[in-house]
Amino acid sequence: MAAAAELTLLEKSLGLSKGNKYSAQGDRQIPVLQTNNGPSLTGLTTIAAHLVKQANKEYLLGSTAEEKAIVQQWLEYRVTQVDKYSNKDDLRTLLKDLNSYLEDKVYLTGYNFTLADILLYYGLHRFIVSIIVIGFFSVIFRMIFFNLS
Amino acid sequence: MRLFVSEGAPGNLPVLAAAGRARGRAELLISTVGPEECMVPFLTRPKVPVLQLDSGNYLFSTSSICRYFFLLSGWEQDDITNQWLEWEATELQPALSAALYYLAVQGKKGEDVLGPVRRALTHIDHSLSRQNWPFLAGETESLADIVLWGALYPLLQDPAYLPEELGALRSWFQTLSTQEPCQRAAETVLKQQGVLALRPYLQKQPQPSPPDGRAVTNEPEEEELATLSEEEIAMAVTAWEKGVESLPPLQPPQNPVLPVAGERNVLITSALPYVNNVPHLGNIIGCVLSADVFARYSRLRQWNTLYLCGTDEYGTATETKAMEEGLTPQEICDKYHVIHADIYRWFNISFDIFGRTTTPQQTKITQDIFQRLLTRGFVLQDTVEQLRCEQCARFLADRFVEGVCPFCGYEEARGDQCDKCGKLINAIELKKPQCKVCRSCPVVKSSQHLFLDLPKLEKRLEEWLGKTLPGSDWTPNARFIIRSWLRDGLKPRCITRDLKWGTPVPLEGFEDKVFYVWFDATIGYLSITANYTDQWERWWKNPEQVELYQFMAKDNVPFHGLVFPCSALGTEDNYTLVSHLIATEYLNYEDGKFSKSRGVGVFGDMAQDTGIPADIWRFYLLYIRPEGQDSAFSWTDMLLKNNSELLNNLGNFINRAGMFVSKFFGGYVPEMVLTPDDQRLLAHVTLELQHYHQLLEKVRIRDALRSILTISRHGNQYIQVNEPWKRIKGSEADRQRAGTVTGLAVNIAALLSVMLQPYMPTVSATIQAQLQLPAPACSILLTNFLCTLPAGHQIGTVSPLFQKLENDQIESLRQRFGGGQAKVSPKPEVVETVTTAGPQLIQALMDEVTKQGNIVRELKAQKADKNQIAAEVAKLLDLKKQLALAEGKPLETSKGKKKK
């Protein structure tokens, strides 16, 4: 899913009415949002966090210092690991790690649903086939089909 | 909570620097683990640093750990910080880990290391200079700064990897590196071993894949190219199409220039040079030249602008100089005033008036200010003990006494300070004091003096600063100096002196005294204006309508930002006070200081004898303007900047654009049919032009000059890609394309000529004459890029703008002005590595190669006979071979050379 489409989808699920237009920068097509008041914002997770605030749903960024840091950690994980895996082995490790992290959790922060869950879900969506094939679907499957639906 | 670190892990740096934030809010234990230990149960691969939280959760991302520490201290996250951290993780880290690996593990050096990260470093530098903030996310240091600083520190702590041209990055990095938490983190992690401290850790890591296969480029502007919106492009095209019609009518020059209600009125001063000293390049860039750029810019904006300066003439130094030369003080001042005026005229400084302080107006205004201060109770009287030489019949200023240091016994201690032990001395404490003029022994006499009661004025000053400083463009150093003076508390300051050469004190009992220069020198601006127009009070007693910009080096800040405002506020006479105090740092000469006595450095009157035009001096001095930090004048660098930026970039572009018009289109600007690509270029040029305006409005003179060079780089690239010289020979469509490219290029050249006007007025006028740019377009600069040379416009004769500076020419200048420091050779790396041939031989060969190269180029340019060219090329290749041998490569042959 292209970053712009992903952000549009996020806007919808946040209940934001006005659709923003996104441009893309460089080879990796990093999304850029031109805001009305102030400079443009660059980067998927930066824009996503901005949209969450726009929609007055700050709780999706975590409510305690700990939650906030964890949300950002997994947002970073999404853009540095999930988006950049380079081979099957990497992907396998990535999914295994996530699986074992989520084993005793409902959501990435524990019990509260956050932006990290949304973006990680979007990021993993394209691996859905691999997830089923490799067999780590127990937990991630639950995440995808129960918690986000 | 518990932090796990591993020796030499780069992530330790930001984490330790940020950890201080959490202190007192949570208990933090730090444990050191091996680089291969897996501390996070759910991660397959080892990762440090890791923070284990009291809840049992783990933070394994370095920036998230830092973020957590900041969040604990009550910091709120914001978009800009998020953007920097995302950029750090996705863009900077891949490039940086490759560079660090090359450097620390593989022992690579130079461009191999810098190449992968250059783009990222440039991005930081540009953001800093664009935002005009000292820190990444605003006025104060924050999370983004710590995370990026920590990531970059191992690389940038080696000055070799902190490119000089990235000035904003440099000063940001240096500011952070001196902060206490950062300093401590750096010591803990690198243990004074530099990047090698990371080696044991990095060795255990898989080799990072090189950052995305993008070509490494030195063209930093490219990255900005992607973020234009459709609206921006459309607006740029509309503005362009309106052309010269959108220019307002040219205002006739006013004499005298006076403020007009409802318009922007800009009053500009540059610090008054002391009349006896011939100014050196540092004085020139610090005051008059910087102010001149701003004054010229201000006039291009059609603001009512008055720019004034003059010589500061009163004081002991003039009296002594007069005695030395057997002249009266007035004659000395007359003589030196002319020398100053000539120098500034040569540098093309556009003063509306260059006056002097020894005028009746100065006496009248100074005495008036004094009387008002006196009647309002802001003047104190006190007795001061001073040395008096009975033989010379005068009190001795500190610098005219010498004696034995009371602290260390040094024989030739000065009246204010001992050169040996460095301690400050009160002149009357000197043992065996001597008058420096007649060598007789002075006696201690007490003398009555007047003091300005600064403590009593402090509250008014703070009120005024509170209103003035926020939102103003006072430079950070000026703010800092004023803040530290106020923090230490103001003390009464003596405003009188036992001298004859000065403004008389209009008070009974003080008939043989004059005002101390620092009290009345700043009043010089007012009196010089009064000499220019009898309506001077419309400028100086009009704070509501006049914006006062004062330019100076940082040592002058207290007098302009504190003492004069106190005097003026004390008079309760509604004076115009400084709105923007623009202070530079110092300019050094090569590796040392300018010194008249040691004959080191270039002084104003010598610059004209170098054969280098004034505009080149102006360009280079402005290019290295000590904005934000000290900088250094370097001959080699001046040659480099002239040959690369002026000759190859700016001059080349403007000359080519004009040449295409005259060669391919008979001197008439061709029809332009803009394609979407051309429209994007229009928008980019517009964007850069707007950036130039933003910077100059904030008096960021050095940075705005970069915008000019960026536009001409865009222009060169545009010509290079579109190749009008080929298309002109092609089909009808190709010819039309060549026309559009030429037309757009020559219009960019016209725009550049106006943008260049504040910096290089003569070159600017030359370009405008060559292009026959219509009059209003020469003198007005809007924020949009207009088509000022429409199709059908006839241009004049085009010729090259700049001359190449040659190595030997610069080398001989360096020796002439160098004092004892001519040790830096233009190619130090060559000379150092040579063991096989003497540096003279190599230098001689290098000169030969250069000369031969020129011959070949010239022949090619003249389209000379092929055989002739081939023969000269063969000679050149041979010379190059000899040079390679002399430099010791390849090795075998070089040994043979040594035996000779």
From TrEMBL, chain A:
Keyword Membrane carried by entry: yes
GO biological process, one term: positive regulation of DNA damage response, signal transduction by p53 class mediator
Membrane-crossing segments per the record: 127-146
Gene3D superfamilies: 1.20.1050.10, 3.40.30.90
GST C-terminal domain sequence ranges: 50-149
Keyword annotations from UniProtKB, A to Z: Membrane, Transmembrane, Transmembrane helix
InterPro entries xrefs: EEF1E1, Glutathione-S-Trfase_C-like, Glutathione-S-Trfase_C_sf
Cellular component GO terms, alphabetical: aminoacyl-tRNA synthetase multienzyme complex; cytoplasm; nucleus
Protein name: Eukaryotic translation elongation factor 1 epsilon 1
Provenance organism: Prolemur simus (Greater bamboo lemur)
From TrEMBL, chain B:
Name of the encoding gene: MARS1
Stated family: Belongs to the class-I aminoacyl-tRNA synthetase family.
Reactions performed catalytically: tRNA(Met) + L-methionine + ATP = L-methionyl-tRNA(Met) + AMP + diphosphate
Function recorded in the entry: Catalyzes the specific attachment of an amino acid to its cognate tRNA in a 2 step reaction: the amino acid (AA) is first activated by ATP to form AA-AMP and then transferred to the acceptor end of the tRNA. Plays a role in the synthesis of ribosomal RNA in the nucleolus.
Enzyme's top EC category: ligase
The protein's name: Methionine--tRNA ligase, cytoplasmic
GO terms under cellular component: aminoacyl-tRNA synthetase multienzyme complex; cytosol; nucleolus
UniProt organism field: Prolemur simus (Greater bamboo lemur)
Gene3D superfamilies associated with the record: 1.20.1050.10, Glutaredoxin (3.40.30.10), HUPs (3.40.50.620), Isoleucyl-tRNA Synthetase, Domain 1 (1.10.730.10), Methionyl-tRNA synthetase, Zn-domain (2.20.28.20), S15/NS1, RNA-binding (1.10.287.10)
